Amino acid sequence: MNRRPALILCFLLPLWSAGCGDFPELDARLGPADQTADYPKLVPFGPILAQAGEVTVAQSDVEGVAGRAAALRARAARMRGPIIDRATRARMRRGVDTSGL
């Protein structure tokens, strides 16, 4: 049995149905001043980078981010552990007692 046509249909059908959607009326959301406004002016990239270099970060912000990062690392370490603890795994390996059935 050839599955290729079914697979192609599975990929093309969502794309085809997405093309049927209505786009929102973006022009209706703009006010008259926005519709007649000039395009934004392009600025050189150098001054933007210079302003970004002048930004300072408070020590409390650094400590807050470091604390959150440590909490996330601890959470990730807990998630790396076994999902089922040893006692539960041993009980599962014993199986179900069907002698009373």
Report the C-alpha radius of gyration, rounded.
30 Å
Number of helices: 6
Topology pattern, helix = H, strand = E: HHHHHH
The amount of helix comes to: 55-70%
In percent, how much strand structure appears in the residues? under 5%
Distance between the termini: 44 Å
State the shape: flat
Q: Averaging pLDDT over every residue, what do you get?
A: 86
Low-confidence stretches: none
Signal peptide: 1-20
Keywords: Signal
Q: How would you sum up this structure in a few lines?
A:
This protein is an all-alpha fold. The protein has helices at residues 4-18, 26-29, 32-36, 45-53, 59-80, 86-94.
Question: What descriptive keywords fit this protein?
Answer:
101 residues, signal, 6 helices
Can you put this structure into words, describing what you see?
The protein is an all-alpha fold and 101 residues long. The chain is 63% helix and 0% strand. The chain is built from six helices and no strands. The longest helix is centred in the last third of the chain and has 22 residues. It is flat and about 85 Å long. The two termini are 44 Å apart. Keywords: Signal.
